[in-house]
């Protein structure tokens, strides 16, 4: 068994207004899936993209706009969104409150943005 402290949030360089930290992933010896925690300030957005695997988004605070395929939903805290593989999706916070969310997928987080994400707009995440 291993126990790890939650690290500090870091600004995401290519995503203004987003701070993130890894809760489960390569730094914890896990390469088959990850859980990533994010804060999105008002106006912050993750551009349109796809993944070859399911992505789970858990909103714990605020209201996150989720555009997936032809659907758009305002998802409030206390709800989970499951985005099927290859579904174009965009996440954004139209505010005014910050959004706290977690994202999880069955992929090695070390390669997720490079090999597990196809960007349909915007700048790829570093």
Short account of what is shown:
With 126 residues, this protein is mainly beta. Helices cover 6% and strands 47% of the residues. Strands 1-2-3-10-5-8 form a six-stranded antiparallel β-sheet, with no helix packed on it. Strands 7-6-9-4-11 form a five-stranded antiparallel β-sheet, covered by helices on one side.
Largest sheet: 6 strands, antiparallel
> Alpha-carbon distance between the termini?
31 Å
Give the rounded overall mean pLDDT.
96
Low-confidence stretches: none
Report the CATH topology name of the domain at 33-119: Jelly Rolls
Broad CATH class of the domain at 33-119? Mainly Beta
SSE arrangement, N to C: EEEEEEEEEEHE
Protein structure class: mainly beta
Portion of residues in beta strands equals: over 45%
| Count of strand segments | 11
CATH architecture of the domain at 33-119: Sandwich
Structural summary, described in words:
This protein has a domain of 87 residues: Jelly Rolls, CATH 2.60.120. Strand 1 and strand 2 form a beta hairpin. The strands form two sheets. The chain has a six-stranded antiparallel beta sheet, with no helix packed on it. Strands 7-6-9-4-11 form a five-stranded antiparallel beta sheet, with helices on one face. By secondary structure, the chain is mainly beta. 22% of the residues are buried. 6% of the residues lie in helices and 47% in strands. The chain is built from one helix and eleven strands.
């Amino acid at each position: 068994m291993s126990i790890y402290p939650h690290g500090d949030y870091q600004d995401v360089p290519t995503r203004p207004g987003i701070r993130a930290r890894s809760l489960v992933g390569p730094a914890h010896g896990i390469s088959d899936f990850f859980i990533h925690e994010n804060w999105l300030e008002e106006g912050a957005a993750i551009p349109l993209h796809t993944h070859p695997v399911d992505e789970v988004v858990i909103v714990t605070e605020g209201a996150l706009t989720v555009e997936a395929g032809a659907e758009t939903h305002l998802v409030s805290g206390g709800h989970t969104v499951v985005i099927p593989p290859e579904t174009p999706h965009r996440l954004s916070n139209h505010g005014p409150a910050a959004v706290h969310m977690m994202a999880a997928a069955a992929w090695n987080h070390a390669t997720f943005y490079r090999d597990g994400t196809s960007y349909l707009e915007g700048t790829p995440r570093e």
